[in-house]
Predict the structure.
Amino acid sequence: MKAIIYTQRVEVITSYNERRDCADQMIPKFLRHCGYIPIPIPNVSEFVEDILNEIQPAGIFLSGGNSLVKYGGDAPERDETEKILTAWAIKNNLPVFGICRGFQFLADYFGAELSKIENHVRRRHAIHGIINRESVNSYHILGLFNTPDNLQILGYADDNSIEAFKHKTLQIAAVSWHPERESNFDNKDVELIKNFFK
């Protein structure tokens, strides 16, 4: 069974003067349900590449949580970790899939501009386009309305915000929703991940 590296959010615990890496336990459960061994990676840039070279994962899964520093976030170490992961994956021809913050990170990485968006937190809405869904969850405060030429749009929400895209030449794709937050994993999300990392 192949391993998938997944990223973690940074929680700042001021009372202990600690910066903690953590992730919803549903993320590894979802990835395991898709048929992969999930492995979290710490937000410590000094040895991210050492871990990748040792594990030789089948792909990278960029999870949700933490805004990018560029958009008001307070976890520069996570931004740096995800830059290293994405660059390493491109160099080694490995797939990268992003959800929510991962969607935002990849959009920004390839030159797109994000903006504040209304009515996308704790809501459900439809997706239209190459990816069609009657209802997906939504927990993001930043939206995407335009992409550079290197990205292909796969799905829109009713307000014309972009909810899914893929890179036109690299094995990179992202969605703005959280497939791991469904009480029962959606078979369409499971098949999407299985086919993508296959």
Observations:
- The mean pLDDT is 95.
